[in-house]
Design brief:
The complex is a heterodimer of chains A (402) and B (507). Chain A is mainly alpha-helical and 402 residues long. In chain A, helix 1 packs across helix 2, helix 4 packs parallel to helix 8 and helix 12 runs parallel beside helix 14. Chain B is built from 17 helices and 22 strands. Classes of the chains: A mainly alpha (402), B alpha/beta (507).
Chain lengths: 402, 507
């Protein structure tokens, strides 16, 4: 039997060269493919025109050209945003969403660089939020200066996150206990911890499952606060949190690519045996990297409560997991993570109004899936080869008969 | 000669890898019943050619004929179905399984029920046919390396291989085991088998091969020349394209003060079994102490405790004024203590990092590479450019990841890193394993230069020729002990071989 398709076979070969542009290409390819797959799901969920839906998502997340033009015009003429247009609204919302994602993404990037699979950024973020709230409500008097208050909250978030990340770090360094399981499980511990304090416990005000509004000095300044002098900023919730993320990204990039410590991290990540050979202290680095990874996630928690202006029982879960996706899509490059985080922020904002509600998570999942999948194309070359019809077919058949 | 006398023929084989033409229209054929040596430097395309013949690679162009019939292999199963089997350099055996179980592993028949005792009988019969001594019930981990190799050969014979491709079969054997392997090969050719023998060791090629084919940079430079009467020098010239000096040129050693003094070193291996028992020796500046022995007799553990990769359970080792023990700051003494690790890919290099970044592995915490908390990238680059030039590392750029380098160039990169800091002590483990003639020559020269510059060198190797030509003194290790020590001059290779096998020799 000689079927035409039988005379071809797929061969997978290792690529000897990995040009740098392939990473970028496969990330972009991953997003596009995910959108295509997501389109079919949207279709199945009842959207007649998935492309229109995507256009809507993009509009909600980043605004239209007209919005931007109107916004810039209003800014220049110091007037209000024209009725019916959103001006900077979408991008402001997107940046607000992007800041915690960026910070948890950076947390994952640092740990993943050393092949430490910290998937507990969510829990570390919760602990950071909890500690920052503690500072805002109990530790410092309500009339504390805003800079002092916010800095202390940041420190609290960093420290809480550090401790919460360092626990699995220590277990890994001393006893070689799998950090994936521990970080994953500690997420649930953190959820319950917060629930205890805010929902049923001592920090809850009445039955509101909330700590109540923070004093203004414990909250991020928002653009809307300046709308008296710049009318177009009215209603914009954007806050300096995104700068926190950008600064953290730049510092992290410097650490990874330029510093001695970053060199150690890259050596350990690529070949721990060579690190041992060179006398690099593995245990100390595992502890430190997990701790600092946790601290970055903790900072995301502080950022979030300072933006929400209260801690409630509905504190959003999942930013830590989105961070994992951001880290992979950015190919563990902190600077690329800035753009990816903003993209994901836009995705979250844009899909808020879409029914059913799971669309954002679905797209995120598909993106991660496809990006990890294209990793294969990155390392291997898949070739379609023609089998010369000769002696081969009978041989393989006869050996099957045996 | 007629086609039927050819065991197989490869015509015009072309195989390309990104950036490399590994095989450039290579013709290669073997007659039935001969040992045909395939010679060539690393990267000359020998392994590629044999992987094509063994069904692992598909060539871009070219044809393969077996018994006069055109064939096309898509997998090793196709190749073995045509009687072509490959014995890899790294054995593909399951340590906890028995010999017989390993031999039938992967076979399609019997489908469900394995009659092991029947297989065992067949294995014994097969082994007797070729005068090989193998217990089919032994577990692989109980066997010596030489015995494991026999199992690999039997595995192929069991599958009906008429042509055996042997990739560097002698690299891991003692001189006695090599002799026994050669007897087996002779028995096999007498019974109509054909052997393709890949090797770097020209002495062995001259001793065993009937004909020789030499590859250089993917092209055939000598096709099926008779090996009878060929000299090493001629073969080496064909391989490298220039004259090669086989004798290591060195002055008489001028030993100085004691640099390393080891006293009663004892430790366990990874399985917590005693690996090193009470090993003591002294190593002077300006001398090379060779450590001979079959792999697995404690050499690795000795190197590991001297370089901080393993803890000793008792004993002391003193390097100058520093005690080598858990309190040692290995990073601080790293530049004075050079280590050429046994497994250069696994320990000596960081594959995804660039040549330049690999060259600072031991010095990144020190000025001028270190600048405060950061690394001075200009200095890293200049350091790399200087060392690549000085040690003649062939690499496209210093920013190329080291995993793209050939074995020889990777080893030169490691040597450049380890010796550029003028180390007082150097632990070199199998420094030329798997390297071609040209690269071996340069590695040897670097070691001698270091010795002459006053370094104390502990050279651990399985290659007796290398040990005899490089070392000034020789220690033989067996089961974790040094069972004999002698000056290299006038040492008797037969005697050393016996000591490697555990026989204490008087005098």
């Amino acid at each position: 039997m000689n079927l035409p398709w039988k005379s071809y076979c797929l061969r997978i070969e290792t690529r000897a060269d990995n040009p740098g542009w392939m990473g970028v290409v496969s990330s972009i390819l991953g997003v596009i493919l995910a959108l295509v797959v997501g389109g079919f799901v949207l279709r199945a969920a009842g959207a007649n025109n998935p492309i229109a839906t995507y256009r809507e998502i993009f509009k909600e997340g980043f605004g239209t050209l007209r919005d931007w033009q109107a916004g810039i015009y209003a800014l220049l003429t110091n007037t209000d945003c024209p009725k019916g247009l959103l001006c900077f609204g979408p991008i402001s919302d997107t940046l607000v969403k992007a800041s915690p994602i960026l910070l948890t993404g950076l947390a994952c990037i640092l740990a993943f660089r050393m092949k430490l699979w910290n998937i507990g950024a969510d829990g570390q973020m919760f602990m950071g939020a909890w500690a920052a709230t503690g500072v805002a409500i109990f530790l410092l008097p309500k009339n504390t200066d805003r800079t002092v208050m916010l800095t202390t909250m940041m420190l609290a978030g960093l420290i809480a996150g550090f401790i919460y990340g360092a626990i699995p770090g220590l277990l890994k360094a001393w006893l070689n206990i799998n950090e994936i399981i521990i970080t994953l499980m500690l997420n649930y511990v953190a959820y319950k911890w917060l629930e205890y304090f805010v929902v049923v416990g001592p920090w809850s005000i009445g039955n509101f499952e909330s700590t109540g509004r923070f004093t203004p000095s414990a909250t991020w300044p928002r653009l809307t606060e300046y709308s008296k002098s710049i009318p177009v900023l009215a209603g914009l919730t954007a806050h300096p949190g995104i700068f926190l993320g950008v600064i953290a990204a730049i510092v992290l990039a410097w650490i990874i690519y330029r510093s001695r410590w970053g060199y150690e991290i890259r050596v350990i990540g690529d070949n721990p045996k060579a690190a041992r050979y060179a006398g690099i202290n593995l245990a100390r680095n595992i502890f430190l990297v997990m701790g600092i990874s946790g601290a970055l996630a903790g900072l995301a928690g502080m950022n979030e409560v300072a933006a929400l202006r209260e801690l409630t029982g509905h504190f959003q879960r999942g930013y830590g997991f989105t961070g994992v996706i951001v880290a992979w899509l950015a190919r563990l490059n902190p600077l690329a993570a800035i753009f990816v985080a903003i993209l994901f922020g836009g995705l979250l904002v844009g899909t808020q109004l879409i029914q059913p509600q799971g669309i954002a998570s679905m797209l995120q999942g598909v993106i991660l899936f496809v990006v990890v999948g294209t990793e294969l194309l990155f390392r291997y070359r898949v070739k379609l080869e023609k089998i010369t019809p000769s002696i081969v077919a009978p041989v393989s058949e006869s050996s099957n008969v045996n | 000669m007629s086609e039927s006398q050819k065991a197989f023929e490869m015509r015009g084989i072309v195989k390309r890898f990104p950036g490399v033409l590994a095989n450039d229209h290579v013709d290669f054929s073997c007659r039935v019943g001969e040992v045909h040596a395939l010679l060539g430097e690393n990267g000359a395309g020998k392994s590629t050619l044999m992987n094509v013949l063994g069904g692992l690679y598909m060539p871009e162009a070219g044809e393969i004929f077996v018994g006069g019939q055109k064939v096309s292999f898509h997998s090793p199963q196709d190749a073995i179905a045509h009687g072509i089997g490959m014995v890899h350099q790294h054995f593909m055996l399951v340590p906890s399984h028995s010999v017989a179980e390993n031999i039938v592993l992967g076979l399609n028949h019997p489908r469900f029920f394995l009659n092991l005792s029947q297989v065992e009988e067949q294995v014994v019969a097969l082994a007797e046919q070729y005068n090989m001594n193998v217990n089919p019930r032994a577990r692989i981990w109980e066997l010596s390396v030489g015995e494991q190799q026999r199992v690999e050969v039997l595995k192929m014979l069991f599958r009906g291989a008429k042509v055996l491709i042997m990739d560097e079969p002698t690299a891991v054997l003692t001189p006695q085991e090599v002799d026994s392997l050669f007897h087996t090969l002779r028995d096999m050719t007498r019974q109509g088998h054909t052997i393709v023998f890949i090797s770097h060791k020209l002495d062995e090629v001259v001793a065993i091969a009937d004909r020789v084919t030499v590859l250089r940079r993917g092209k055939v430079t000598a096709a099926g020349e008779s090996a009878k009467g060929a000299t090493k020098a001629q073969l080496a010239k064909l391989m490298v394209g220039r004259e090669v000096l086989f004798r290591v040129v060195k002055k008489k050693a001028q030993p100085g003060d004691v640099v390393l003094s080891a006293n009663g070193l004892t430790t366990n291996n990874d399985r917590s079994l005693p690996a090193l028992r009470n090993v003591s020796f002294q190593l002077h500046a300006g001398e090379i102490l060779g450590v001979a022995g079959v792999a697995g007799n404690g050499q690795r553990e000795l190197a590991e405790i001297l370089t901080g990769l393993r803890r000793m359970t008792s004993g002391t080792a003193k390097f100058g004024n520093d005690l080598l023990d858990p309190s040692t700051k290995w990073q601080e003494i790293g530049q004075r203590l050079a280590h050429i690790p046994e497994d250069r890919a696994a320990f000596g290099s960081v594959p995804s990092l660039s040549v330049a970044e690999n060259l600072i592995l031991k010095s990144f915490n020190r000025v001028p590479i270190a600048a405060g908390w950061s690394i001075n990238s200009t200095e890293v680059h200049q350091n790399a450019v200087r060392l690549v030039d000085e040690y003649q590392v062939v690499t496209p750029t210093v920013e190329t990841p080291v995993r793209m380098l050939s074995g020889g160039n990777l080893q030169k990169t490691i040597l450049a890193r380890e010796t550029s800091g003028h180390p007082g002590l150097m632990i070199a483990v199998h420094p030329t394993r798997g390297l071609d003639v040209g690269a071996t020559e340069s590695v040897h020269k670097i070691l001698i230069d270091q010795r002459d510059a006053g370094a104390a060198i502990l050279l651990i190797s399985e290659d007796l020729d290398e040990l005899l030509s490089l070392s000034d003194r020789l220690a033989v290790m067996y089961e974790g002990q040094i069972i004999g020590e002698m000056p290299t001059e006038g040492a008797d290779i037969q005697k050393i071989g016996l000591m490697m096998a555990g026989t204490k020799v008087e005098g």
